[in-house]
C-alpha cells in the first residue's frame, strides 16, 4: 500500500515538472511584445492552476499514506501481542555458584542453544576467578541475582544478619556488573515475616529437584514444566550431571514451544508486578508458594 502511494507521488511530481516546463518553455524572439505579454499571462494562470491541482493531489496522497501507516502499525502491534500470547515462556535459573568450572560449563550450554538464564549467587563463592564467570554470564544477557552470602537458613538469623547476608552479595554483584540484584532466593526456600521485612526485592523459589543426585533426571523436570515457570537447578562446583542434563532439558522445551527468558523478563512478559510477600515458582501463581 505505501509503495503504491509513493509511486503515485513520484508520478505526480514528474507530471508537474513536465507541465511547468511546457508552460514556461515558450521560445524566445517571438514576433510581438503584446502577444508575448498575453501568452505570458495565460501561461502564469495555467501554471498557478496546475500547481494548485498538484498540491491538492499530493495532500490527498499524503493523508492516505498516513492513514495506511497507522493501520499497519496497529496490525503489527496486534500480531506481536498475539505472538507473545501463543509462545510459552520459562526462566532457567541456577543456584549455588559462582565458580570457575561448572558455572562456565553451564554458560557454554547457554551459548550453544543461544538462550539466557538467571544465576542466584552465594556471596562467599565470589572471588577473582569466579567473578569472570559472572561477568561472562552477564555479558551474554543473563540476569545475576542473590542467594545470600553464606547459604544460611534466614529464619534462624536476626533481622540485622538477614540484611547483611543480602547486602554483601548484592554489593559483590554490583562490583562485577554495575547492577544491583533484582531477586532473592532464600536458602532452603525458608522464610517468615522477618525475612520479608528485611529484604526489599521479590523472592523466588522454582520447580526442580536435588539435581545433583543420581536419581534425578531431566525427564522429572520436563514433566513439571508449564508456561510462566521458573526452573531451579544448581551450578555448584562439580555438578556435572546438571550440565549434561541441559542437553536434554533445553532442546526438549524448545521443541515444546518454550522461549527461555530471565526472571525479570518473565514477569514483564506476563504483565505481573511481583508481590513482595510471595515466593514465586510460577509468575502467574495466586498463592504464596504456588
Describe, in plain words, how this protein is organized in 3D:
With 290 residues, the chain is of the alpha/beta class. It has helices at residues 2-24, 33-86, 102-113, 128-140, 159-177, 193-198, 218-224, 240-255, 263-269, and strands spanning 88-97, 118-121, 143-146, 203-204, 207-208, 230-234, 258-260, 279-280. The strands form 2 sheets. Strands 1, 2, 3, 5, 6 and 7 form a 6-stranded parallel β-sheet that branches. Strands 4-8 form a two-stranded parallel ribbon. The longest helix has 54 residues, at 33-86. It is globular. Mean pLDDT is 83; it is low at 1-7, 25-35 and 72-83.
Please describe the topology of this protein:
Elements: H1 2-24, H2 33-86, E1 88-97, H3 102-113, E2 118-121, H4 128-140, E3 143-146, H5 159-177, H6 193-198, E4 203-204, E5 207-208, H7 218-224, E6 230-234, H8 240-255, E7 258-260, H9 263-269, E8 279-280
Parallel strand pairs: 1-2, 1-6, 1-7, 2-3, 4-8, 5-6
Oligomer: single chain
- How far apart are the first and last residues' alpha carbons, in Å? 49 Å
Annotation, overall tally of beta strands: 8
Low-confidence stretches: 1-7, 25-35, 72-83
Number of helices: 9
What is the CA-atom radius of gyration, in angstroms?
33 Å
Quick one: overall form? globular
Order of helices and strands: HHEHEHEHHEEHEHEHE
Strand residue percentage: 5-15%
Helix content: 40-55%
Largest sheet: 6 strands, parallel
Structural class: alpha/beta
Mean pLDDT: 83
What does this entry show, briefly?
With 290 residues, the protein is α/β, with parallel strands linked by helices. It has helices at 2-24, 33-86, 102-113, 128-140, 159-177, 193-198, 218-224, 240-255, 263-269; strands at 88-97, 118-121, 143-146, 203-204, 207-208, 230-234, 258-260, 279-280.
Amino acid at each position: 500500500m505505501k509503495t503504491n502511494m509513493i509511486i503515485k507521488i513520484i508520478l505526480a511530481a514528474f507530471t508537474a515538472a513536465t507541465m511547468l516546463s511546457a508552460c514556461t518553455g515558450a521560445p524566445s524572439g517571438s514576433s510581438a511584445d503584446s502577444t508575448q505579454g498575453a501568452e505570458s499571462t495565460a501561461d502564469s494562470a495555467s501554471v498557478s492552476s496546475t500547481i494548485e491541482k498538484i498540491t491538492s493531489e499530493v495532500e490527498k496522497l499524503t493523508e492516505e499514506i498516513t492513514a495506511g501507516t497507522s493501520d499497519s502499525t496497529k496490525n503489527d502491534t496486534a500480531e506481536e501481542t498475539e505472538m507473545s500470547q501463543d509462545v510459552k515462556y520459562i526462566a532457567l535459573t541456577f543456584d549455588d555458584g559462582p565458580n570457575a568450572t561448572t558455572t562456565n560449563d553451564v554458560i557454554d550450554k547457554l551459548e550453544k542453544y543461544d538462550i539466557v538464564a538467571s544465576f542466584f549467587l552465594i556471596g562467599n563463592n565470589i572471588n577473582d576467578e569466579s567473578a569472570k564467570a559472572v561477568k561472562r554470564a552477564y555479558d551474554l544477557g543473563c540476569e545475576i541475582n542473590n542467594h545470600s552470602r553464606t547459604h544460611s537458613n534466614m529464619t534462624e538469623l536476626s533481622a540485622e544478619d538477614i540484611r547483611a547476608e543480602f547486602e554483601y552479595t548484592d554489593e559483590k554483584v554490583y562490583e562485577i556488573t554495575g547492577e544491583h540484584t533484582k531477586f532473592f532466593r532464600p536458602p532452603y526456600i525458608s522464610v517468615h515475616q522477618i525475612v520479608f521485612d528485611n529484604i526489599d526485592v521479590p523472592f523466588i523459589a522454582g520447580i526442580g529437584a536435588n539435581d545433583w543426585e543420581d536419581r534425578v533426571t531431566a525427564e522429572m523436570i520436563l514433566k513439571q514444566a508449564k508456561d510462566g515457570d521458573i526452573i531451579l537447578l544448581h551450578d555448584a562446583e562439580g555438578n556435572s550431571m546438571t550440565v549434561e542434563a541441559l542437553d536434554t532439558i533445553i532442546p526438549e522445551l524448545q521443541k515444546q514451544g518454550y522461549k527461555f527468558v530471565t526472571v525479570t523478563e518473565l514477569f514483564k512478559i506476563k504483565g505481573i508486578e511481583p508481590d513482595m510477600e510471595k515466593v514465586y515458582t510460577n509468575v502467574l501463581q495466586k498463592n504464596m508458594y504456588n
